Amino acid sequence: MPLQTPRPKGNYSCTQEELYQVCLLTWDSYLSNVADFTAVNTTYTAAFGNTNRAAVITAKQLPDFQARDEASESLLIQLKDAADNCLIQWNLLETHIKKSFPENLHKPKIEAAGGDYYEKAAQSNWESVSALMESGKTFITANNATLTTGGMPSGFPAAYNTAKTAFENLYTQLNDADQDAEEARDAKINANNAIFKTITSVNEDGQKIYRNKPAKRERFTFSKVLELVSGAGTTTREITINPNSSETVRKVRANSPITNIAQVPIMVGAPDSTEQTTVNPDDSTANTFGPDIKITNAHPTNTAKATVRVSQA
Predict the structure, then answer these.
(1) How far apart are CA 188 and CA 64, in angstroms?
(2) Domain that holds residue 269
């Protein structure tokens, strides 16, 4: 079996916004000192710096989680409405069955029309909605004459099929939008990793070029520039939150970003507060909760992860 490439993960130990700001500052430092770089390697030109600075802007402008999720979120709202309409149509079918067949046949007839799928369908299980409507359509086709004799209007099968088709179309669009969002997420992570790799290489040379000039050298030290962006005396911690559990993090820097780096939502708040803020995947919220925060993962099976800026003191 051929090897498969795994989904990309960020290679940088900071938030996306911190990464972009650090890279932009570093490229500005490079362009201000490009002659020193060119002196040791002729491929280091102003054009090289401008091209790579533009790549940072391009990566930054790629859709974030909210932008990627908009289509899915909008379609989900429409899908719920379409599912409700399907349930209404199927309930009408159930009524037609009860009026068209003897009482002792109601149970098997309703089951044949998909009744066993109804409970899960009513709980927004989309596969069950699809199965319910498909079974109902098959039943209407097979029993049209009897249902019509029992009072089913002539236009009911068409109305039923219209509801079914509307749901199926939206369900297909939602699945496609979810896949598009995942591809866009991977594209952003890959772009971030690419600009981080390039800036790391430039930093390695910058530290050599300015080995005897500490202030200049720090301009090409990722951790030092990150301190400038996020505050000195702090470090980025990656927190793992198991399914259906919470983690308390101490000494979190005020107003620093708390970033969800997993694929399930997390909830953030003060440890003793019932009020929590939801943070979606690849999104951040500023720490306004205090020096200690609680991060909760309500997902029953998937592990969550987040990055926070904490004081080293």
Answers:
(1) 8
(2) 233-313
What is the distance, to the nearest Å, from the Cα of residue 71 to the centroid of all Cα atoms in its chain?
Answer: 12
The pLDDT assigned to 313 comes to: 59
Nearest-angstrom CA–CA distance, 101 and 152? 12
Q: What is the pLDDT of residues 231-262, one digit of tens each?
A: 666 778 899 999 999 999 998 887 778 888 88
Strands 293-297 and 266-269: antiparallel
Tell me the C-alpha distance between 65 and 67, whole Å.
5
> Are residues 38 and 78 in contact, defined by beta-carbon separation less than 8 angstroms?
no
Number of domains in the chain: 2
Q: What is the pLDDT of residues 29-52, one digit of tens each?
A: 999 999 999 999 999 999 999 999
pTM score of the predicted model: 0.69
Structure tokens at 270: 């003060």
Would you state the structure tokens that stand for residue 6, as one six-digit string?
């795994």
Count of other CB atoms within 10 angstroms of residue 199: 26
The verdict on residue 36 lying in a domain is: no
Whole-angstrom Cα distance, residue 92 to residue 104? 19
Q: Are 307 and 253 spatial neighbours (Cβ–Cβ below 8 Å)?
A: no
Structure tokens at 297: 């993962």
* CATH number of the domain within which 313 lies: 2.60.120.10
Q: Which residues of the chain have pLDDT under 70?
A: 1-3, 231-233, 312-313
End-to-end CA distance of the chain: 51
Position 305 scores a pLDDT of 92
